[in-house]
Amino acid sequence: MKAASSGFWLKKLPVLVLLLAFIGAAPLFAQKTLANSIRITPPVFGPANPDNPTHVNFALGLNQEIGKVYDNFIDEIAASDFGSINSDPQKLMRGFANSSVFSSSAATQRGYGGYKLFAFTVGTMVGAQLPVSLFSSSLVDDIQNLETKLQDEGDVNFGLNPQAITGQIGINAKFLLDGLYLGFKFGYFNLDMIEDYSFSTFSLGLMANYQLVKQKRFLGPLFLWRGVNIGSGLVYQRTNVGFGMDMGEYDVATEQLNINGHSVYVGAEITDSRANLDFNINTVTIPLEVMTSVRLLGILNLSVGAGIDFGFGAAKLNTRVAATAETTFSGNYDTYVEEISPARVDIDVGGKNTPKFFNPKVMAGLGVGIGPVLLDVPVTIYVGQGYNLGLTFTVVW
């Protein structure tokens, strides 16, 4: 039974690992032992007829022998390929926490200061933490081979965070201070229509921009310099991912046990096997930015800037693999006992880490506009290994 049950995990867990890799949560292989994360509960049997001494003694002997078998499962699994599963993937957690910080500028209005009254923006943005620099010559190869890299090298610094739908309402707060613009951001997205999969994001933010240098026009309507804007704010983001997968059934080969002098062949059928993943990211970002932009020919808008994002919060990963086993016997011994509780095998893997605190960045944007309607593609490159890419639609008054 031992070898067969180990074979079950060796066959099924790679499926889980590949699925986790697909959504960015697969680098569970590293240096730490898995043994402390494995919990095995052997089945418990009682006599079919409590008044029959043969049944009582058989149940006692069976519980004792099966307990010894299951006691060896932890060491056996820990000695297998899964003994290197990392129960605390710190680089992965930091990567996903960083990617949340990187995506916090969704629905940005930083390139469109100088409006008269109000601005409304809706947008989407993806933040990514890469294992190598965005300008690395091996970037394309590393992305293409990410799944293999995660499994071979272990705890890789990688993360991805999409903010699907975010809106911002901006107001010209000249009644408080001339040149001051305030904004309120709100984002929400929930996907739970797909069985065994859920994804949700929620964000709130308060933004402030000050036009340090006023905008100026040159050549009439042909050239508008929007001046120099400095901005800051406070953005909270929460991202939750839930994933569940039935891992099928598996028949465990029989194994010979000696119970009270009787040679008994005991087998098992793995049932109700399931993997569940819970991924929770909560971050607070404080940006400090300097931005300038120009509008050409009344249509094309170009913006550039630099800044720093200060990141707070944490990312947590909890993954659980669980299965039950239905025990079978050769001969008539199954009539001697009744199963009180089935065997269970549980593996818990997870971790927690904070985002990088100091995140310098350079920003750019390319947009087109007709009158008060603007469409923009903002891009940010974080010094080191991160970036974001978004799409925004803005209307100004």
Name its key features.
397 residues, alpha+beta, two-stranded antiparallel sheet, 16 strands
Task: Characterise this structure.
This protein has 5 helices and 16 strands. By secondary structure, it is of the alpha+beta class. It has one domain (2-396). The strands form 2 sheets. Strands 3-4-5-6-8-10-11-14-15-16 form a 10-stranded antiparallel β-barrel. A two-stranded antiparallel sheet has the order 2-12. A hairpin with a 5-residue loop joins β5 (180-191) and β6. α1 crosses α2 and α1 packs across α5 (146-153). The protein is elongated. It starts with a helix and ends with a strand. 39% of the residues are buried. The model is unreliable at 1-33 (pLDDT under 50).
Biggest sheet layout: 10 strands, antiparallel, barrel
What is the C-alpha radius of gyration, as a whole number of Å? 29 Å
Total count of helical runs of at least 4 residues:
5
The unreliable regions are 1-33
Please estimate the helix content. 10-25%
Overall residue-averaged pLDDT value: 79
Global morphology:
elongated
Provide a concise account of the structure shown.
By secondary structure, the protein is α+β, with helices and mostly antiparallel strands. The protein contains five helices and 16 strands. The protein has a ten-stranded antiparallel barrel. Strands 2-12 form a two-stranded antiparallel ribbon.
